[in-house]
Design brief:
about 250 residues, alpha/beta, TIM Barrel, 8-stranded parallel barrel, 8 strands, globular, binds 2-phosphoglycolic acid
């Protein structure tokens, strides 16, 4: 059985007291264990939220990382620092990082490898823009993103990968991919992973869907055979909707 994961990406939201209030409610109301639950607070709340989830089944994730271990890189956070805080997952290559902060496939590849080298697990985000989808380029774009981001990743490291398919046109827009659109993209990503790492490894890599996941659409999405969970943005900021998503997932 492939692992199933629901991850909350809090993006640039929550002060420390707000983050603690949210995590305490999620912790208290969490009632199922067939999904691994991951919360990704901003860097400033990682330490406090890490303390709050320690000893619970909830895993700590970060939203970004730099690839060097240490040095004169003002403003950056290293994989060593994240591992030290008990971070298990790191979101890499989110479309907001690609779009607003100029992250290239090469930078994303360095980040993926740094996360793996420090025994954490990357949640690698891929996905096409609306323009690319309408031009029929979805498969080309996603193949390119996957191949570039995963260059130099070994078969044994690939066992720790998580992929998130996030069509850019569905992020924060209230517009969700239909379950069939998601399944088609996920099945295609799975084929690529199988080509890269062999079927035995590729078949075990969880592929999450992201983009306006809500309590009322999560069941149809996670009901698809290659949709192994969700990466949730906006709806992970309130305990009620995040718990609703977890409870309704298939
Ligand atoms: P959204 O964000 O759920 O607010 O669309 C998803 C994401 O960016 O990971």
């Amino acid at each position: 059985m492939r692992e199933r994961i629901i991850a909350g990406n809090w993006k640039m939201n929550k002060t420390v007291p707000e983050a603690l209030e949210l995590i305490e409610t999620i912790k208290y109301e969490l009632s199922r264990d067939d999904y691994k639950i991951v919360v990704c607070p901003p860097f400033t709340a990682l330490y406090s939220v890490g303390g709050a989830v320690s000893g619970t089944p909830i895993a700590l994730g970060a939203q970004n990382v730099f690839w060097e271990d240490r040095g004169a890189f003002t403003g950056e956070i290293s994989p060593v620092m994240l591992a030290d805080l008990g971070v298990e997952f790191v979101i890499v290559g989110h479309s907001e990082r690609r779009r607003y902060f100029g992250e290239t496939d090469e930078m994303i590849n360095r980040k993926v490898r740094a996360v793996l080298a420090h025994k954490m697990r990357p949640i690698l985000c891929v996905g096409e823009t609306l323009e690319q989808r309408e031009a029929g380029k979805t498969i080309d774009v996603v193949t390119h993103q996957l191949r570039e981001a995963l260059k130099g990743v070994s078969e044994s490291e690939a066992k720790r990968l998580v992929i998130a398919y996030e069509p850019v046109w569905a992020i924060g827009t209230g517009r969700t991919a239909t379950p069939l659109q998601a399944q088609a993209a996920h099945a295609f990503i799975r084929e690529e992973l199988n080509l890269m790492f062999g079927k035995e490894v590729g078949d075990q890599i969880p592929i999450l869907y992201g983009g306006s996941v809500k309590p009322d659409n999560v069941a149809d999405l996670t009901g698809m055979p290659d949709v192994d969970g969700a990466l949730v943005g906006g709806a992970s900021l309130k305990a009620e909707s995040f718990i609703g998503i977890i409870e309704n997932a298939q």
